[in-house]
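INTERNAL AUDIT FORM
Audit reference: QA-55
Scope: verify that the stored structure record matches its stored sequence.
Auditor: D.O.
Record contents follow.
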Amino acid sequence: MLKSFFRFLKQLFSKEQTMRIVLLGAPGSGKGTQAKLIIDKLNIPHISTGDLLRGAIAAKTELGLAAKEVMDKGNLVSDEIVLGMLKERLSETDAAQGFILDGFPRNVKQAEMLETLLQELEITLDHALLIEVDPDEVVARIAKRAEDRKSTV
């Protein structure tokens, strides 16, 4: 397993090919932090579903308005809306050279939907990385985030 990880790192930092990566893990596991380290080396976009939602809502796109309506009612945004945003983002020119997808999929149904979307767009993933963190650590990180946000408001 360690050999395959080192092969991955060597490939990752060779910059000789496109790199399409999905980061998997619980909220607070460090996906965003790791994505920032990788994109600095590869110069590929970090596609966070949370950022896509916030951006689409701010830009008042059709999908953004649909997401806002759902969120304003206190509900979760449907997989179909998020997938629509992903489809638009993955079709942009900068994603052709690779990307890091963070925050989607979170379950098997979403993984199947993502697989279908990628097939439709003729995109193949190069790597899926699972970041595992002790559950107590995840809770501590999320609590710290909440406290940090509270102190900046």
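Auditor finding: record pair retrieved intact. The two ends are 44 Å apart (CA to CA).
Action required: none
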